[in-house]
């Protein structure tokens, strides 16, 4: 049974860590650069096979004894023609690559044996050698981009694809794994695989009798084929994979469901037409159901997929609302994990960016109290998203809805966050305050709002922001102070006049047509 | 310019001259340098000089000149001349870092600034090796060099603290982290080790601690945007060391200076910031370390002294605790009764004490003291931080905290009672403690709006505040007096009215206190009490209740203006205004003396107006005197004119710009008081009011329009007969105003007054011109505001001259003009008109067009008849705009928006809204019904048929309602 190394330290080896670009419905700002550690709850891009089948029975020391072939001996044997030695050497290389710590991937590549290992894949009469080579190559492909490239450039893609139909299930399964690693490298190799027609034989492996472990590998590889943007996977490939994913989502195995949800989350992380394809499958109710799964590995991608859907059009968002997303969000906003809070708040912020009837549903479903609570007590990342939710609400909501928002106690925690150490958050809050004033003006309640802001300590915070280093923040604060908190206000009025000097009263007639 | 000795010599000469105190020598030298700065090699010559010149003064001067040169010219702006040639740029970047590092500190700072300016433009793309070059110097072991690098790095990276997240920014930060984070960490560790090996070497420690401060600052910048992977992995190293630095003390680093923070304080202060950053943003990762920091910071507070040099550290540290204690998951760190007691006792109470520095400010810098204490600009003070901590703790522990503090308050009061003259500061702290404990929410306008219910404010007031204010001497313990007055002020909504009434004579008495703070607070407190609202929207404190105190109040207020330091005290002047407004006719007996004092004040301050609020309230007070007096005795207006005109003339002649808008408003008020024809003194001024120079100043426009309106209202006939030649000038002003989108409404105010009041014959010849002008504006740049005013005007015209006259003049300008205006402007836009009077004018005007304009019945305009009626019904049925209630007494400067900076509208010079239609039409709906009835009688059958063909059902229903109410039927 494949064991995925879960040590977070290892995770750093996986590249392309950052995938959770805080997208906004109105302005999806993608920051592909991450300063943070890879997210612990991201799906894994590439996996190395560390212990497998018969090796499991071996003790650590025994294993070390077996792998004592020197690199030089390995090269000689691999390039030689003795099948016995080829197998031994390949196995030795594979064992080194499966070592728990610091597998010598680079060194093995430098030996130049990859083309030879790829050749072994085609030795249909020597299943053991095929398998050892496949395994070794799988682990090489699990390394950095350069490592994966070495495997691909060794010609492994077509070889692995034909091995999918190997009569030996364990070889076919190893190939699925290797292909998963190659696909996980990025859009380039993903599309190379698709171009080599990887999808039909891969999907053919899915059947009611496929063992669960195998099915997990297939699902994971499928999810990597759906993964990555710039460009997105080709549409027809997506359309082929989707029906199978929808079936897999009904499976009872949690890993399979998890990877399926990840796949769906990748497919929805894109333009509206991409989202539409997923919405059309009718999968949203199932996703919403999975959002309350006790399994974090299921909940996380399901939430992310729905979060992506509501970045879409009003109709797509409505589909998610109809599927019941608003009923499950309150508990997620209060989830023990801060990352879940954050994703849930992000989702909410995009629903709040919708038209006022969707905002009304949000109110009706009781989302305001948990939102206020999150603003008060949430982790900073979640608070930031909650601020966006409030901002969007005040942009699109009706005056009555904004009043309801204020009555739910949003002001105090919102104003407290003016002390946040993040310029963007501060600016968004200032914009929100301006929105509140616009609503107050319509109600003739400007003065009351002024007093309320002052009472809640907001005025002095806004005043202090007039000294903020960030230009936009300082100007936004200044604008609010000038407009609402100072009698000697005024916008720059330029008396634009053509008349100079003495005002002599005269005018020339022209033709009028209004 | 070649890099030659001769050029170096020349440059040296000129640099020397730029230091000359004589501008005749200095200026030309500066000019010369500016003229040659575009030449190639100029910056390199400067760099050579700052490195090699024999004279230190030239070195420094060259470095400053170089930095300013870089500041002005390094950025390449599109379409602007690039003054620095590429080869110079390359040479500068190649040499500046080593040069900076080998320079003495004074020059190093300049070059470090220059590097960061260059870095802002070129780093990282165009200056790829900068980071490596800097990092390599860490190995030098020379801390002079290392500090230079750190300082430069700090100025390069500190922008990460406030810029928005972006791909570009984060790419740069990532690059910096990759190159810089590890060497910085190693340097941090090495520096700390060196600190312990050199623990006895004061001068070495100084250098090392400067490095640590810079390192801690860099940590802050690099960790600001997000928690970098590297720092997460190395959190243990950083936080453990930060923690031990917080607890470190070394006698050698303690400074004697009481004011200036020493290295140790600066470092610890920065560490508090770093911890607060992590606690706020990276809570999840920082959680394991947080309790240690809470304890360390709290111990730090307990052991830190009262000197001013610790202020920043202490307020940062307290703010850290305040932000942590209100987080639900850290609640447990504070929950223990002993912990709470100890925080209250050792952190909060000591930091609330009134210190020597506060005492100094109270006496010598009272304006600043008042601003901090009263207006809340005390964000960074210890008292404020302590107050925030109290509020933070009260979120979860209001009961226990109140209990603990009650004990302290009592014991402090006892201390005071034992020996007031020695222990008065204990009482000050007790009052401050009660205040911060009790106030949960506060505004300037209403004082405390939410109070802690566990504190008995009235009892404290009666037992501890009033006795101080009742004491025989107003000058004893001034700080406690100020505290007591402030207590009344901020808890005015919590203390019962009887107690406030008891306090009023006490406050009046304290207007005489010598201390500026005390008499200012007394004035301010009175002013605030007088604005409190009672039932029925009247004042809480009535004129009748004040009757016994009128004389002493006025006397003391005006006397307070003569106390040293308060001659232009805005709080006192505002209290004068508010007293007049409250007392109304009971001030009349004192007016002669009051107006003399106000005029003298006006004359004095008009020499050099410097306190805008003071001036404003002074004019408000003048207006109030006039209004109140003339209401009782209209003839008194003459005596006011006599008293004021001389000063006004002087203000106008000397062109005191700040006061002119006020003078016009007071004059309007006076003029409107006249019941008969306009006095000749005003007429003499009339031509001067039309002078373009006055109208060029935006601030003059509203009050001048207002004044001209008063002229037209009172003296239209006089103008028509005695100043007919000035009418084109008057209309010129209208034209000037109408040309501006900002002022067109003012133009319409003027025009409306002209149409309403001038004898028709006197404006006959200009009427067509007026309309052409308006049409032109309508065609070229119409705005909603313009359209609204335009609609009101043409309807007013229609009322005044008749509907037929309106139609005729339109069509005489251009055939079918009337129809076009109806169709394109009136019908679609009429609903935009707002304001009760405005709507009434439009309703009456349109009714006239519908019923008194024959072409509407029998020309091609007929098709517009029903749509126009429909639009009118729409106008009726729109919800009315709320009119502004007549509550001038409560109005504050801050409450009157909408006027330009240069113009402050005087609330008490305002006039009632004028309704030109007046009693002529009481109910415009009924008026419409009656007019339609009259029309239908004149041409039976036509009106019902027009209604039935195209008026929509809803409108018809409304109309039937009007007809019914008027008891008429259409024939």
UniProtKB/TrEMBL annotation, chain A:
Superkingdom in the source lineage: Eukaryota
Keyword Transport part of the UniProt annotation: yes
Species this chain originates from: Rhynochetos jubatus
Molecular-function annotations in GO: nuclear import signal receptor activity
Domain IBB: 1-57
The family this protein is said to belong to: Belongs to the importin alpha family.
An annotated GO cellular component: cytoplasm
Taxonomic lineage of the native organism: Eukaryota, Metazoa, Chordata, Craniata, Vertebrata
Keywords, alphabetical: Protein transport, Repeat, Transport
GO biological process: protein import into nucleus
Residue ranges of ARM repeats: 112-155, 155-183, 282-324
SUPFAM superfamilies: ARM repeat
Name this protein carries in UniProt: IMA1 protein
InterPro entries, per the entry: ARM-like, ARM-type_fold, Arm_3, Armadillo, Importin-a_IBB, Importin-a_IBB_sf, Importin_alpha
Automatic annotation (TrEMBL), chain B:
A GO CC term assigned to this protein in UniProt: cytosol
Record-linked SUPFAM superfamilies: ARM repeat
Gene it is expressed from: Cse1l
Importin N-terminal domain sequence ranges: 29-102
Annotated localization: Cytoplasm; Nucleus
MF-aspect GO terms: nuclear export signal receptor activity; small GTPase binding
Superkingdom, natural source: Eukaryota
GO biological process: protein export from nucleus; protein import into nucleus
Name used for this protein in its record: Exportin-2
Keywords assigned by UniProt, alphabetized: Cytoplasm, Nucleus, Protein transport, Transport
Family the entry assigns: Belongs to the XPO2/CSE1 family.
Annotated source species: Rhynochetos jubatus
Pfam family, one: IBN_N
Keyword Cytoplasm appears in the UniProt entry: yes
């Amino acid at each position: 049974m494949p064991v995925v190394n879960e040590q977070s330290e290892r995770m750093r080896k996986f590249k392309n860590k950052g995938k959770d670009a805080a997208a906004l419905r109105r302005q999806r700002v993608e920051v592909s650069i991450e300063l943070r550690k890879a997210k612990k709850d991201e799906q894994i891009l590439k996996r190395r096979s560390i212990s497998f089948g018969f090796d499991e029975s071996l003790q650590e020391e025994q294993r070390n004894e077996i792998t004592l072939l020197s690199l030089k001996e390995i090269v000689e044997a691999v390039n030689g023609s003795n099948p016995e030695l080829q197998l031994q050497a390949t196995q030795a290389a594979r064992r080194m690559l499966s070592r728990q710590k610091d597998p010598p991937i680079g060194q093995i590549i430098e030996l130049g044996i990859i083309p030879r290992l790829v050749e072994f894949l085609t030795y249909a009469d020597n299943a053991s050698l095929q398998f050892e080579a496949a395994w070794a190559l799988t682990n090489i492909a699990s390394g950095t981009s350069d490592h994966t490239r070495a495997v691909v450039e060794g010609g492994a893609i077509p070889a692995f694809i034909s091995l999918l139909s190997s009569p030996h299930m364990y070889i076919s399964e190893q190939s699925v794994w290797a292909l998963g690693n190659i696909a996980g490298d990025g859009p380039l190799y993903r599309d190379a695989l698709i171009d080599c027609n990887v999808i039909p034989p891969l999907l053919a492996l899915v059947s009611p009798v496929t063992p669960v472990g195998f099915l997990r590998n297939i699902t994971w590889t499928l999810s990597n084929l759906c993964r990555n943007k710039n460009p997105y996977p080709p549409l027809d490939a997506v359309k082929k994979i989707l029906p199978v994913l929808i079936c897999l989502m009904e499976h009872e195995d949690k890993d399979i469901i998890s990877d399926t949800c990840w796949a769906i989350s990748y497919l929805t992380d894109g333009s509206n037409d991409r989202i539409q394809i997923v919405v059309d499958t009718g999968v949203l109710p199932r996703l919403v159901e999975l959002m309350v799964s006790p399994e974090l590995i299921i909940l996380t991608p399901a939430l992310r997929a729905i979060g992506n859907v509501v970045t879409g059009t009003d109709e797509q968002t409505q589909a998610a609302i109809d599927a019941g997303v608003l009923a499950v969000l309150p508990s997620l906003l209060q989830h023990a994990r801060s990352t879940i809070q954050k994703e849930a708040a992000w989702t909410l912020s995009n629903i709040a960016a919708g038209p006022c009837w969707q905002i009304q549903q949000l109110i009706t479903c009781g989302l305001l109290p948990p939102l206020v609570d999150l603003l008060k007590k949430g982790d900073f990342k979640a608070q930031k998203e909650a601020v966006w939710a409030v901002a969007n609400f005040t942009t699109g909501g009706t005056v009555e809805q904004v009043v309801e928002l204020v009555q739910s106690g949003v002001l105090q925690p919102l104003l407290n966050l003016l002390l946040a150490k993040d310029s963007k958050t501060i600016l968004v809050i200032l914009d929100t305050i301006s929105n509140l004033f616009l609503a107050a003006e319509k109600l003739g309640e400007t003065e009351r709002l002024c007093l309320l802001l002052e009472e809640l300590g907001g005025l002095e915070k806004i005043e202090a922001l007039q000294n903020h280093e960030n230009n936009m923040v300082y100007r936004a604060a200044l604008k609010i102070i000038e407009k609402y908190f100072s009698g000697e206000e005024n916008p720059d009025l330029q008396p634009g006049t053509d008349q100079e000097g003495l005002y002599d009263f005269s005018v020339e007639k022209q033709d009028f047509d209004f | 310019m070649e890099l030659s000795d001769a050029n170096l010599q020349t440059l040296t000469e000129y640099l020397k001259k730029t230091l000359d105190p004589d501008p005749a020598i200095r200026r030309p030298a500066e000019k010369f340098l500016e003229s040659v700065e575009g030449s190639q090699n100029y910056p390199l010559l400067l760099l050579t000089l700052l490195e090699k010149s024999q004279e230190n003064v030239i070195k420094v001067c060259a470095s400053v000149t170089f930095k300013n040169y870089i500041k002005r010219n390094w950025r390449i702006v599109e379409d602007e001349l690039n003054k620095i040639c590429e080869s110079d740029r390359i040479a500068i970047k190649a040499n500046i870092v080593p040069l900076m590092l080998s320079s003495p500190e004074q020059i190093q700072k300049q070059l470090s600034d220059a590097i960061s300016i260059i870095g802002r433009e070129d780093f990282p793309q165009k200056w790829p090796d900068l980071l490596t070059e800097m990092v390599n110097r860490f190995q030098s072991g020379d801390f002079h060099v290392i500090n230079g690098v750190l300082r430069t790095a700090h100025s390069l990276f500190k922008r990460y603290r406030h810029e928005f997240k972006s791909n570009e920014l984060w790419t740069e930060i990532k690059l910096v982290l990759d190159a810089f984070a590890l060497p910085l960490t190693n340097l941090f560790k090495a520096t700390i080790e060196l600190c312990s090996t050199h623990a006895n070497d004061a001068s070495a420690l100084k250098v090392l601690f400067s490095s640590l401060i810079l390192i801690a600052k860099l940590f802050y910048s690099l960790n600001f945007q997000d928690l970098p992977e590297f720092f997460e992995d190395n959190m243990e190293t950083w936080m453990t060391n930060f923690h031990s630095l917080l607890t470190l003390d070394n006698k050698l680093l303690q400074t004697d200076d009481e004011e200036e923070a020493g290295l140790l304080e600066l470092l610890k202060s920065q560490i508090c910031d770093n911890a607060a950053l992590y606690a706020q943003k990276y809570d999840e990762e920082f959680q394991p370390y947080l309790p240690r920091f809470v304890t360390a910071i709290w111990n730090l507070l307990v052991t830190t002294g009262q000197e001013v040099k610790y202020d920043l550290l202490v307020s940062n540290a307290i703010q850290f605790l305040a932000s942590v204690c209100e987080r639900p998951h850290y609640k447990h760190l504070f929950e223990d009764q002993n912990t709470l007691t100890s925080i209250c006792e050792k952190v909060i109470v000591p930091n609330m004490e009134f210190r020597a520095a506060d005492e100094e400010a109270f006496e010598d810098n009272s304006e600043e003291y008042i601003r901090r204490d009263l207006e809340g600009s005390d964000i960074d003070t210890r008292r404020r931080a302590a107050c925030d901590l109290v509020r933070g703790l009260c979120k979860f522990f209001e009961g226990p905290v109140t209990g603990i503090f009650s004990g302290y308050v009592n014991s402090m009061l006892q201390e005071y009672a034992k020996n007031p003259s020695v222990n008065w500061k204990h009482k000050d702290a007790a009052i401050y403690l009660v205040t911060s404990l009790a106030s949960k929410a506060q505004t300037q306008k209403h004082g405390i709006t939410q109070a802690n219910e566990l504190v008995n404010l009235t009892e404290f007031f009666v037992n501890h505040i009033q006795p101080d204010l009742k004491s025989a001497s107003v000058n004893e313990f001034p700080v406690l007096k100020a505290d007591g007055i402030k207590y009344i002020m901020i808890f005015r909504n919590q203390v019962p009215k009887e107690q406030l009434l008891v306090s009023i004579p006490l406050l009046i008495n304290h207007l005489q206190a010598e201390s500026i703070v005390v008499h200012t607070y007394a004035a301010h407190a009175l002013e605030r009490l007088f604005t409190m609202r009672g039932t029925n929207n009247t004042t809480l404190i009535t004129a009748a209740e004040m009757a016994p105190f009128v004389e002493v109040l006025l006397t003391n207020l005006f006397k307070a203006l003569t106390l040293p330091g308060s001659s232009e005290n805005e709080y006192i002047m505002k209290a004068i205004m508010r007293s007049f407004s409250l007392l109304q006719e009971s001030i009349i007996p004192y007016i002669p003396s009051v107006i003399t004092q106000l005029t003298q004040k006006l004359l004095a301050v008009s020499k050099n107006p410097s306190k805008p609020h003071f001036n404003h309230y002074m004019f408000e007070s003048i207006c109030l005197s006039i209004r109140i007096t003339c209401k009782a005795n209209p003839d008194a207006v003459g005596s006011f004119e006599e008293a004021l005109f001389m000063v006004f003339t002087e203000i106008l002649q000397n062109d005191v710009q700040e006061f002119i808008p006020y003078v016009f408003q007071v004059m309007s008020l006076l003029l409107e008081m006249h019941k008969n024809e306009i006095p000749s003194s005003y007429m003499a001024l009339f031509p001067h009011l039309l002078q373009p120079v006055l109208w060029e100043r935006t601030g003059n426009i509203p009050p001048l329009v207002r004044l001209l309106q008063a002229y037209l209202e009172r003296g239209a006939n006089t103008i028509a007969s005695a100043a007919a030649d000035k009418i084109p000038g008057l209309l010129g002003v209208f034209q000037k105003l109408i040309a501006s989108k900002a002022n067109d409404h003012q133009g319409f105010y003027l025009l409306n007054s002209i149409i309403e009041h001038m004898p028709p014959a006197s404006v006959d010849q200009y009427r067509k011109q007026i309309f052409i002008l308006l049409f032109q504006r309508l065609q070229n740049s119409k705005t909603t505001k313009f359209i609204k005013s335009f609609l009101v005007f043409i309807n007013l015209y229609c009322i005044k001259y008749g509907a037929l006259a309106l139609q005729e003049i339109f069509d005489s300008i251009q055939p079918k003009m009337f129809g076009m205006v109806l169709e394109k402007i009136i019908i679609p836009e009429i609903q935009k008109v707002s304001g009760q009077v405005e709507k009434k004018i439009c309703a009456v005007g349109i009714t006239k067009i519908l019923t008194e304009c024959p072409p509407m019945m029998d020309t091609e305009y007929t098709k517009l008849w029903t749509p126009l009626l429909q639009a009118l019904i729409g106008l009726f049925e729109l919800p009315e705009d709320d009119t502004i209630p007549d509550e001038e007494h409560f109005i504050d400067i801050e409450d009157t928006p909408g006027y330009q900076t240069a113009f402050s509208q005087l609330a008490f010079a305002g006039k009632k809204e004028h309704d030109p239609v007046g009693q002529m039409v009481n109910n415009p709906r009924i008026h419409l019904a009656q007019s339609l009835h009259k029309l239908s009688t004149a041409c039976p059958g036509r009106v019902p048929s027009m209604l039935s063909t195209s008026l929509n059902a809803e409108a018809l229903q409304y109309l039937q309602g009007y007809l019914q109410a008027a008891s008429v039927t259409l024939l």
